[in-house]
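User: Please fill in residues for this 101-position structure.
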């Protein structure tokens, strides 16, 4: 786990020092987003983030027939590019990741 945090920190410090766009995918992209948006303590303590997200999901009043109906709704015509499109399919900077906080 510490190796993942260290690699994210090194990747992010490299990006911020040189401002060269990099490609991040999968766990590296997720860790970079959590590190930039929430801070380093959330990477090492997944239970805190899971508890926070769990509370948020429980508080949501699901329109469109409950959670299952919301997830099954056809949102394809409202699709917009996401963080994966911005940073995994093409190079991105920390500013792009910060837009998704």
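Assistant: Residues filled in for all 101 positions:
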């Amino acid at each position: 786990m510490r190796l993942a945090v260290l690699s994210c920190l090194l990747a992010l410090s490299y990006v911020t020092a040189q401002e060269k766009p990099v490609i991040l995918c999968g766990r590296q992209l997720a860790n970079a987003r959590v590190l930039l948006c929430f801070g380093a303590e959330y990477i090492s303590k997944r239970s805190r983030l899971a508890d926070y997200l769990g509370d948020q999901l429980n508080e949501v009043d699901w329109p469109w027939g409950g959670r299952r109906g919301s997830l099954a709704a056809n949102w394809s015509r409202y699709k917009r590019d996401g963080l994966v499109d911005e940073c995994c399919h093409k190079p991105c900077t920390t500013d792009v990741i910060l837009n998704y906080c």
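For context: Residues 2-59+75-98 form one domain.
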